[in-house]
Structures are given as structure tokens and as C-alpha cells.
Design a protein that fits this description.
Helix content is 70%, strand content 0%. By secondary structure, the chain is mainly α.
Length: 142
Amino acid sequence: MATEYRMLADAVVIVHAAYVAFVVVGLGAILIGVAMRWRWTRNFAFRVAHLAAIVLVCIESIVGVMCPLTSLEGWIRERGGVARYPGDFVSHLAHRLIFYDLPPWVFAIAYISFAVVVAITFILAPPRWPMRAHRAHAPDSS
């Protein structure tokens, strides 16, 4: 049973690392993509999701709420009676990539600074608004 909990908690860590990668690598891709004129980096849904992802992190940090993924992972590990930090390579690597032992204010400043950069790119290199379907209007038959 502990193995199943450990695997589930490790999966949460991997999802968490993917979220962080989406935010961090996404900004790099946007900056490079704008310079290289890659159309996909101006995709409206991608850009709004990217901005929303970092804004959510900022709100959690400002309000002082622990990340729900971190809470979920801890709850799963405690429920399964397994160690708080995973021992296998992938989850250990993911933990090392996304968790640091620094005061909360350092993270808040980093998150907000990152969000400001994302917002600036949103303004200076705005996403393309989705095209609205143009309906052919038939002339009135009156």
C-alpha cells in the first residue's frame, strides 16, 4: 500500500514540476518565439494560460497559502506512511528543481518579478486574439 501512495505522491511532484516548467520555459519560449517570429508563441490560449499560471502563484504567495500541489503531495505521503521527500531519482530530481530553503518573502519577490516580466511580454508582444467566425448576413427579404 505504501508503494501506491509513494507513486501517487511522486506523480503529483512530476505534475508540479511540469507546472513550474510551463511557467519558466514558457516565458523563454515566448521571448525566443517573438524574436524568431514563431506564430505559436502568440497563441491567445497559450499566452492567457501562461499569464494565469504565474498570477496564481503570485496570489498564493501574497496571501500566504501553500501551493495546493505541495499540500496534496504531503497529504498523500502522510496518508501512506511514506517519507515526506521521495527517494527515487525522478521525484528527487523534481523536488530539487522546484523546492528551495529560503524565506517566503524571497519567493514572493521572485514570483512577482517574474509575473511583471510575463505581463510586460503580454503587452509588448501581445497574443493574437482568436478570430471570430464571420457570418454571412443575408439581405433582408422585406
